[in-house]
Amino acid sequence: MRYEGKIYRPPPEAGAYILQCTVGCSYNKCTYCSMYKDVRYRVRTIEELKEDIQMAKQAYGSGVEKVFLSDGDAISLPTDTLLEILSELYGAFPELSHVSTYAGPQSTLSKTLEELTQLRKAGLTMTYLGVESGSDRVLTEVRKGVSAKEMLEAGSSIVKSGIKLVAMVMVGLGGRGERSRIHAIETAELINRMKPHLLGTLTTVAMPGTVLHRQMTRGDFTLLDPYEVLEEMKVLLEHITLPDLYIDGTHASNLMPIKGMLKEIAPDVITAIDNHLGRRDNNLIGQAYMGRF
User: Fold this and answer.
1) What is the CATH number of the domain that holds 146?
2) How far is residue 282 CA from its own chain's centroid?
């Protein structure tokens, strides 16, 4: 396939055919993000995309079942363009049942509920929204570009349209001490109101080359240690009031991988966290980050 730059996709999209609709991210200002720094943002033409789809059909046959629309914010494309892409994909791959994309909050807010509903009917089945935090202070500090109220509006519109929403949040993004607790509580409250299909959790890591890494180097921001990470995760779980919410915390950045429905996993996870916090034997130091974003 004719990919430009590094290609990223969420872990659940393993095995999906990736169609690069845009090169880079339409926003790309978040302080913690190291993605798409090696390319200049541009929208690929519909002619290019149709050629790619036909190339994929020749390479993979008609049995493709999953497609991920990249790069960072394909939902930013005009609705008519997205509808044309979806029509081409479902025409090329008769067994296709799942098409997903990252969705930036600003781009999502630029679309009406009617437009999002059209996209769902045309076959856009899932979007990944980087919520990160429910705190206005944190969202401002990391230059997310929207308030918590606007983030809620974006996520709620996706849910109302019938598109499955994966909301992603970042443990540790608010900083240490009371800031950590407030970040966790306000994030849980936002998720409770947004009611996503799935909640994905990541642990904040200062990736080299990012604004956050420079802030950490200067001493303007301090990452949580593993025990503070667990404390914040416990607060988050204790304040989410959606018992049937499915949580996927298996991202490589997480100290304690968790996966399952909240009502089924929360008691055991909280007990495990309490055991670690009770011992504090330093066995966890240096283990919070085990991979790359």
Assistant:
1) 3.20.20.70
2) 31
